[in-house]
Design brief:
CATH architecture: 3-Layer(aba) Sandwich
CATH class: Alpha Beta
Shape: globular
Organism: Legionella rubrilucens
Oligomer: single chain
Order of helices and strands: HEHEHHEH
Structural class: alpha/beta
Protein name: Cytidine/deoxycytidylate deaminase
Strand order of the largest sheet: 1-2-3
Radius of gyration: 15 Å
Strand content: 5-15%
Number of strands: 3
Largest sheet: 3 strands, parallel
Number of domains: 1
Pfam families: dCMP_cyt_deam_1
GO molecular function: catalytic activity
Length: 108
């Protein structure tokens, strides 16, 4: 399960019934289309991320090249999600670069 889906599932399966307008989703990477849609339907009004989908695609491949902004701009308009990208982008990119390096070392 993707990290964003996992945290959304845990939040609501643990009985969250608080003020959704105060929820924020933070991620090292831009949410994939599935996770962006899940955050929307969970009514999380703000998503903050570091690395972009395009960076992840260039690094790993196997990424659907549809950004969260495109997904969120095509949702029903009963509320809006604020999307803040590029937060600590260099640090997040470095984490993924290290993960790629470790992944390569597993095959040695």
């Amino acid at each position: 399960m993707h990290g964003e889906l996992s945290v959304i599932h845990r939040l609501f399966s643990n009985g969250f019934d608080g003020d959704r307008s105060k929820l924020r989703l933070y991620s090292t990477a831009e949410p994939c289309p599935m996770c962006a849609a899940a955050a929307y339907w969970a009514m999380i009004p703000k998503i903050v991320y570091g690395s972009s989908i395009s960076f992840l695609h260039d690094l790993f491949g196997r990424q659907i090249q549809i950004g969260a902004k495109e997904i969120l701009s095509n949702t029903p308009s009963f509320y809006e999600v604020e999307l803040v990208g590029g937060v600590m982008e260099g640090e997040c990119n470095d984490l993924f670069l290290k993960a790629k390096q470790l992944q390569g070392n597993q095959h040695d």
